[in-house]
Write a structure and sequence with these properties.
Blueprint: H1 2-17, H2 21-32, H3 37-44, H4 50-89, E1 105-106, H5 108-122, E2 126-127, E3 133-134, H6 136-139, H7 150-153, E4 159-162, E5 168-171, H8 177-184, E6 190-199, E7 210-220, H9 225-239, E8 247-254, E9 257-270, E10 273-276, E11 281-291, H10 293-298, E12 307-314, H11 315-323, H12 336-342, E13 344-345, H13 374-377
Parallel strand pairs: 2-6
Antiparallel strand pairs: 1-13, 3-5, 4-5, 6-7, 7-12, 8-9, 9-10, 9-11, 11-12
Helix pairs in contact: 1-4, 2-4, 5-11
The structure holds 3,4-dihydroxyphenylalanine.
Length: 386
């Protein structure tokens, strides 16, 4: 008995005095490990009389538990101590600038957004924004897509649960609701683009549940389809850095435009690569049309006085085309090797609009001082645009 009490006292004292996790593990092995002192004592139980077992057994078990608890408490305390030492010694100052070799890069989508924005702002457009969590009215109803309209099914919408009033918000399926928000924010004329994230429940090599679009809306007096065509041709010429871009307008249907068209760009497929502006193949790049009179009426604009055009384009799609990126899903996989390969230098300012007469060619790093102002020569200006 006395022996057990002494043993307990000695072991607990050793644990308490231990200052090192490796030594603590040695203590554990030598006391309660398979061949440890306590385990050997346990084996002795077999040789005892039943009465001895009755008194000695529980005591030994109690001692084993006591030691195990003391070991685990000491282990936690030592680990915490070790962690604090590491936190102190490995502290980094996150406000310091990064090392040159760790520089981040601009994601191709951000680059495309910057380039598209630059081209359109030079044409006199301003940038508008809308929420990604949208109301049914802006995403569908006001755009002439009432409940039960078959076009709703094509959108694979992510809906939120109903609120108390029975309304369901949704993740916007396109950037077109920004048209409605813009037209409800003040009187015409409008000349805006709205780049941003959009969502549809769809996923394969050319579809991701989150993707990007840019919307354009021009409303004024006497705007016609010729303006739309010029605008799109001008954009393609600058964006793809080509003097002669083959463009085709194919009749199509969108509830919010009448007439509607889809725009294809001429291309060739050579050795698994897409060459824009060459060959006899076509790739669809956007939907467009003259804003439907019903949409204007929905936002209290008189369609006899004002009319205009709109278009919507997939930004991921045009990025893939421009830089030959084969799989859309890679854009959002956060793979650093991919980002390093397709990313752009952090200080690479898009300078497309200053290269008006440049055919194809190398990307410029940094801006250029040329200040040719496209908005002065824009035919849209001849109609008293913004
Ligand atoms: N919102 C359409 C879509 O996501 C694209 C679109 C087509 C936008 C025609 C427009 C337009 O503004 O006029 O499929």
């Amino acid at each position: 008995m006395d022996d057990l009490q002494k043993l307990e006292k000695d072991i607990l004292a050793a644990i308490e005095a231990c200052d090192d996790l490796v030594i603590l593990e040695d203590i554990r092995i030598s006391e309660v490990g398979k061949k440890g002192r306590i385990s050997l004592l346990m084996r002795e139980l077999g040789k005892m009389t039943p009465d001895e077992k009755k008194t000695f057994g529980p005591k030994l078990n109690g001692l084993k538990d006591l030691i195990n608890n003391a070991l685990s408490d000491r282990k936690s305390a030592l680990e915490l101590k070790e962690l604090n030492i590491r936190l102190q010694s490995e502290k980094i100052d996150i406000s310091l600038p990064t090392l040159p070799e760790n520089n981040g890069s601009i994601h191709p989508i951000t680059q495309v957004m910057d380039e598209v924005t630059e081209i359109f702002t030079e044409l006199g457009f301003s940038v508008a924004e809308g929420p990604e969590i949208e109301e049914d009215f802006y995403n569908f109803t006001a755009l002439n897509i009432p409940a039960e309209h078959p076009a709703r099914q094509m959108h694979d919408t992510f809906y939120f649960p109903e609120d108390e009033k029975g309304n369901r918000k949704l993740l916007r399926t396109h950037t077109s609701p920004v048209q409605i928000r813009t037209m409800m924010s003040g009187p015409p004329p409008y000349r805006i683009i709205a780049p941003g994230r959009t969502y549809r429940c769809d996923s394969d090599a050319t579809h991701t549940p989150m993707f990007h679009q840019v919307e354009a809306l021009v409303i004024d007096k006497n705007i016609n389809m010729g303006h739309l065509k010029w605008c799109i041709e001008e954009f393609c010429r600058k964006f793809f850095e080509l003097d002669n871009v083959k463009i085709r307008f194919r009749p199509s249907y969108f509830p919010f435009t009448e007439p509607s068209a889809e725009v294809d760009i001429g291309c060739a497929f050579k050795d698994g690569e897409i060459l824009i502006g060459e060959g006899d193949d076509w790739l669809e790049i956007m939907g467009c049309g003259m804003v439907n009179a019903r949409v204007l009426e929905n936002v209290n604009i008189d369609p006899n006085e004002y009319q205009g055009f709109a278009f919507g384009m997939g930004l991921d799609r045009i990025a893939m085309l421009k830089w030959g990126i084969p799989d859309l899903r890679d854009f959002f996989a956060a793979d650093l090797r991919w980002l390093k390969h397709y990313g752009f230098a952090a200080l690479d300012i898009p300078s497309l609009s200053t290269q008006n007469n440049k055919v194809g060619g190398d990307r410029k790093i940094g801006g250029s001082s040329s200040s040719e102002n496209m908005s002065d020569s824009s035919p849209l200006n001849q109609n008293g645009g913004q």
